[in-house]
What does this fold into?
Amino acid sequence: MADSVEFSIIGLDSLLGKLDAVSFDVRRKGGRASLRKAAMVVVNAAKEGARNVDDSQTGRSIADNIALRWNGRLFKRTGDLGFRIGVLHGAVLPKAGEAADTAQNAPTPHWRLIEFGTEKMRADPFMRTALANNIQAVTNTFVSEYEKAIDRAIRRAQKKAAQGV
It folds into this structure.
């Protein structure tokens, strides 16, 4: 089973105060952009960790297959913003008797064996550590970017109100 990493954000009083001043629409748009920038911190750390465990003898690269995707299912169900970070083609294994594709940009299903280990090989996690080692940086990036987005929205609203007067 996959491990989980849980954390809470403390010290968002100024952000929450500004959040009340903007509309629901701006919260979603600014929040999604800010969350994407924060998630990119984890993506970059995961790619760096994957480069350390990648086999340079093959054309396949785990780091090239790490992707960031919008979690539309979560948003539709709960209204919460979310992104998923993972490895493309994550479960594509060659069929019995077929050789694994070693061309450039080929699927890298072996990433799971490296990340979680096997009974004969210890785990060398790079995805889980990418998040665990960067929680503070992700939180700081999200808060600063979201505050900027909210400040821009407030300035736009004030400018629009001044023009309407």
Remarks:
- The two ends are 60 Å apart (CA to CA).
- The mean pLDDT is 82.
- The longest strand covers residues 66-70.
- The CA atoms of residues 94 and 100 lie 6 Å apart.
